[in-house]
Amino acid sequence: MYNFLLELHSILRWIIILLAVVAIVRSGSAMAARKPFGAGDKKTGLFLMIAAHITLVVGLYLWLFGPLGLANIRNLGFGEVMKDRTYRFFAVEHLFGMLVAIALITVGRAASKKNISDGSKHKRTFWFILAALLIILATVPWPFMTGIGRPWL
Description:
Layout: H1 2-33, H2 39-65, H3 70-76, H4 78-83, H5 85-111, H6 118-139
Helix pairs in contact: 1-2, 1-6, 2-5, 5-6
């Protein structure tokens, strides 16, 4: 089950990245063209938030019950985990970065539901999702990261 959830977590990463890029492009182009905040914008944000929250639930399960999260902290102690780059990344850095990114996605989605101008909705969505995407890209264990890297899928 652990391997299945790890693969699901990895696949969902790509869905989140794709939806975030789509949301950023849609909001950026709509800001420039002064377009209304339409149903497509709402759906993109909703699907992005759903994918992010599902990924969060899967990731929390992996962190709580997998070998690189809470188990390492219990077995080695927090001080030892913090001294090792790989253990620290999975026990603290990845988790913290993704929590912040998902919070930004959620706040960006909430901002699009407020009773404000369409231009403000696009602007807020653009900046919150862009910040979330940058944090996601910085805290994903990419294959080229020595000692931390995971396969592309």
